[in-house]
Amino acid sequence: MTRTFTAEGPAYTQLLAGLAVLVLTIFGSALWLARVLSSWSRKIALLEDALGKGNSGLADLPTLPPTGGELDRLVDALNNMGKRLARERQRAAAAERLAAIGRLSAGLAHPSRRRGERTASARHLGRSRAAARRPDGDRSG
Fold first, then answer.
1. How far is CA 111 from CA 92, 116, 119, 129, in A?
2. Fewer CB within 10 Å, N side or C side of the chain?
3. What is the Cβ-side half-sphere exposure of residue 8, based on CA atoms within 13 angstroms?
4. Radius of gyration of the CA atoms of the chain, in A
């Protein structure tokens, strides 16, 4: 039995070539992934800046610029939500104004209605007393 050195021959050369392709594929995938993550990181930073630059006095969402990539659906959804939020705030403010007008008109109408009720009650009480004073008990008025 003789020993053969395994670092020789066509099988060893094919094994080394396969390992080299595998290592190159792994490094290429890592570089591609780093590029994609870097691109997304820049786009997310732009979105964060745009959201942070919104008027701090207003609670509405700012309109975000498109990123030119995969995040555009998210940007569109945020922009649409900001528009809906602004519309609903306007509707709520209008409803609050109408409620204030209703409270004001109810406050103005309430004393006059109570005055009318007091007048009717006083007339009814006066008739009752007048009828009670009559000796014949006639309450016809």
1. 29, 9, 12, 27
2. N
3. 3
4. 43
Place of tokens 């009670």: 132
20 in any annotated domain: no
Total Cβ atoms within 10 A of residue 43: 19
Tens-digit pLDDT profile for residues 34-83: 999 998 888 888 888 877 776 555 567 777 888 777 778 888 888 888 88
Q: Tell me if 35 is assigned to some domain.
A: no
**Whole-angstrom Cα distance, residue 81 to residue 72?**
14
Q: Tell me how far apart the alpha carbons of residues 123 and 114 are, in angstroms, rounded to a whole number.
A: 14
Q: Which tokens belong to 49? A: 């800046």
Alpha-carbon distance of 118 to 111, in angstroms, equals: 10
Length of the chain: 141
| DSSP classification of residue 104 | H
